[in-house]
Amino acid sequence: xxxxxxxxxxxxxxxxxxxxAIDPVRFIGNRSSGKQGHAIAAALSRAGxxxxxxxxxxAEPAPQGVQxxxxxxxxQMLAACQDALPxxxxxxxxxxxDWRVAGQAPQKLKKQEGGQPPRLEFAENPDILATxxxxxxxxxxxxxxxxxxxxxxxxxxxAKRARKGCDWMLANDVSTGTGTFGGDANTxxxxxxxxxxxxxxxxxxQVADRLAARxxxxxxxxxx
Length: 224
Ligand code: PMT
Known about the structure:
Function: Catalyzes two steps in the biosynthesis of coenzyme A. In the first step cysteine is conjugated to 4'-phosphopantothenate to form 4-phosphopantothenoylcysteine, in the latter compound is decarboxylated to form 4'-phosphopantotheine.
EC number: 4.1.1.36, 6.3.2.5
Pathway: Cofactor biosynthesis; coenzyme A biosynthesis; CoA from (R)-pantothenate: step 3/5; Cofactor biosynthesis; coenzyme A biosynthesis; CoA from (R)-pantothenate: step 2/5
Number of domains: 1
Cofactor: FMN; Mg(2+)
Distance between the termini: 12 Å
Organism: Oceanibaculum pacificum
Low-confidence stretches: none
CATH topology: Rossmann fold
Mean pLDDT: 96
Strand order of the largest sheet: 5-4-1-6-9-10-12-13
Bound molecules: ligand PMT
Helix content: 25-40%
């Protein structure tokens, strides 16, 4: 119907940062608050989609009507995404760590009197978006990524869309001072296979509603 155009559809949304453990008490993370991803999960649920939100550690409350899966690391996030399949719609708004600490310490690293600071080595994390977008079997019908850029917004998002194999890429400017990480507003460029839409500056909630409406429009012509 008009109020719930995504009834009968299943959606998966990732949100928040990942935490990559250094030892049992320390981690490497980032400044993602989960506001954008959580708002998208809430908007898809309001539009009628059966929605699973897979989130790193955030202070955001669980959106109403959404099944929430809490994880910490990128590898846990990938496993949770795979468990949530099959879905019709997948939106990857999480700020996933590109690298984890290689050989994380099983015990707390000790500061030794007069000793050297530890040296951390890194290993590459799986690319969750690319993994799901390139599934030979069970690929979601519509795969949407975010491109966090500090320059050449649209050109970088066009290249990233092709590289990762997703259908739509939402480019946002995460330069210092924009407040895109952690703030309540966002300015989006929606990159598809054959078009670029420049959205005005909106609240993250408005971005979520507009995205849900675009997704509903995409599915309108397809059988549920
Ligand atoms: O959480 P907020 O404070 O509200 O901030 C929102 C946001 C800025 C985090 C969000 O709008 C956003 O841009 N999310 C994507 C951040 C990011 O990691 O961008 P990227 O350009 O590095 O990655 C591109 C895409 O690949 C993203 O969809 C990302 O989720 C995905 N990715 C990246 C690395 C990886 N190992 N696996 C992935 O799936």
